[in-house]
Specification:
By secondary structure, the chain is mostly beta strands. The protein folds into three domains: 2-62, Roll (SH3 type barrels); 65-125, Nucleic acid-binding proteins (OB fold (Dihydrolipoamide Acetyltransferase, E2P), Beta Barrel), CATH 2.40.50; 129-186, Nucleic acid-binding proteins (OB fold (Dihydrolipoamide Acetyltransferase, E2P)), CATH 2.40.50. The chain contains no helices and 16 strands. The protein has strands at 2-3, 12-15, 18-28, 36-43, 49-55, 59-62, 65-75, 79-84, 90-94, 109-115, 121-125, 129-137, 150-155, 160-164, 172-176, 181-186. It is flat.
Length: 188
């Protein structure tokens, strides 16, 4: 059993007959009244996100998990296939377990969180950012750069990302996986 002081991002807990992963949390100590922790929980089985407030000192049932490095192999439409980089065993996961499946490129190494009780994969953590090539975007017009103007661009995985006007087809861009936003252009 853990308490609210143990809450951190990525912690998996058992709550309402399901397993949830904490994606955001905030410890709040108001001037009046007791402290509490405001959390965003993502169900690892359905992908549904809920918000919940735990009072300070509330006991929560944490789930013991292990993390393993897996390489993304391919998507067959229904499942995403991964291979363990240590022992080469393969697993397949449904899309709801993945945080940003559109940013997943074949060969990408991700961290898979596995429940130690039944060896079931709970969720997939992407790297902080990924480098992808822009496959389609409209050309930027000269003189349109007075503000932070952006345009939609399609990257090699099929995801659509807003990029600055100076990005062209064939450019490689770094994308933050947590928000799915453009970070920088990669020069070769």
């Amino acid at each position: 059993m853990a308490s609210t002081s143990d809450i951190r991002n990525g912690l998996c807990i058992r709550y309402n007959h399901d397993i949830y992963k904490i994606t955001e949390f905030l410890h709040v100590k108001p001037g009046k009244g007791p402290a509490f922790v405001r959390t965003k929980l993502k169900s690892v089985t359905t992908g549904k996100v809920i918000e919940n407030t735990f009072s300070a000192g509330h006991k929560i049932e944490d789930v013991r998990v292990e993390t393993h490095k897996f390489q993304y192999l391919y998507n067959d439409g229904e499942f995403y296939h991964f291979m363990n980089v240590e022992d080469y065993t393969q697993i397949r996961l449904v899309e709801s377990v993945l945080d940003q499946p559109k940013l997943l490129k074949e060969g990408e190494v991700v961290t898979v969180i596995i429940n130690t009780e039944d060896n079931a994969p709970l969720s997939v953590e992407m790297p902080a950012s990924v480098v992808l090539e822009v496959t389609h975007t409209e050309p930027g017009l000269k003189g349109n750069t007075a503000t932070n103007a952006t345009k939609p661009a399609t990257v090699e995985t099929g995801a659509e990302v807003n990029v600055p006007l100076f990005i062209n087809e064939g450019d490689k861009v770094r994308i933050e996986t947590e928000k799915g936003t453009y970070k920088e252009r990669i020069k070769e």
